[in-house]
Predict the structure.
Amino acid sequence: MIDVYAWGTTNGLRATLAMAECGLAHQVIPVDLSRKAHKTPEYLAINPAGQIPTIVDHGAPGGPRVLAQSGAIVLYACNKAGRHIPTDEATHYTAMQWCMQAATDIGGASAGLQQVAVVAPEKVQSTVDLFEQRFIRYFGYVDQQLQGYDFLAGDFSFADIMLYPNYVLRRALIERLADLPRLRAWAKRIAQRPGVQAGMQLLEA
């Protein structure tokens, strides 16, 4: 059994999606960020960084394994289950490229946008516009990649698991800023997957 400590954020949903899509026995333990549940002594004993997600794999060889960082958790789940990892070398590295794109460029732009548009006490519209344009530019690259493909690396892979929560949580902004038909079609295909539907339930918490 794997304990999944998460909340309905991009990073948290990556972890729950990976577990559900990979068919691994797990239980989701909600960590309510609005109530500072990630800063309690109990949670800090599991993850001293006080961030989500974190997993505890009680069935790991050698005893319970604690792992943080959404990208590491996605890859761990896929490797453990032997699912959603391309076997062809070229396709594998294509998936890795878009996994990293989601984790760095897109994830970073989204986090920066959150800081300047929501967290900052003074909102500077020109700065918000700058981050919005950077964010949507990266999704434009995704739309280009999907030309002729159902998923980022051809078949559904860990790269799609990494990116999908970014799209869902920023859907309104993406649709306001750009017309990206291949991206929309990709998201609809993913949303129909039973594992994705199960993994996204934290959004209803």
In short: The chain has a mean pLDDT of 95.
